[in-house]
Amino acid sequence: MKRKYFLLAILIIAVVINASAMLYSKSTVNLRPTEYHSSSGEHLYPTPVPAHGTAWANFSNAFVISVMKDSGKIIVRAEPKEGYTIERLKVLVYRQYGNGLYVDTGLGAGNLKIYREKTRNGGAMVIEGFPQEDLGRGSVELILMDRVPEILEKVISLHVEVVAKRGSRSYGGEWDFVVPNPSE
After folding, report:
1. Number of compact structural domains in the chain
2. Contacts for 57-60 with beta carbons within 8 Å, 24 or more apart?
């Protein structure tokens, strides 16, 4: 009788360990940035993007999110560190005039998905970039160009989310950037 309960206990423990291992392998580890700053020297959150400058956040040496502003273009890039691959770059754009934004793919981006989403901060335009299959899984870049006159649109807020993979584990991170005078 004791042997039957002993075998049943071992079976239950094996099932629990197996289920937890499967759950662990499917989950995404959320990373926090180890450092962030702007090329103007500001160390703020959300990080401001200066005119003709860059703001970036480094996530535990897994990947770097950078936002550059140059000649009316806002370039959002996710760069993996050695051994990691970028799976997805997602940008939530919060702005007053949603229709005046031109979106293009840059370096490494293959598929592009654009839709609207309600968030706790209000409505957002969501832009998702996925890596181009034949180029491997290096950097993914999205280019945003503001077509609203600068007297109307004073600032664009970007919430950037990245999912990177190393082996069978996924690592995610998110950061907020503010782009003043986006059409400049």
Report:
1. 1
2. 57/33, 57/173, 57/175, 58/33, 58/34, 59/31, 59/32, 59/33, 59/34, 59/162, 59/171, 59/173, 60/31, 60/32, 60/33, 60/34, 60/171, 60/173
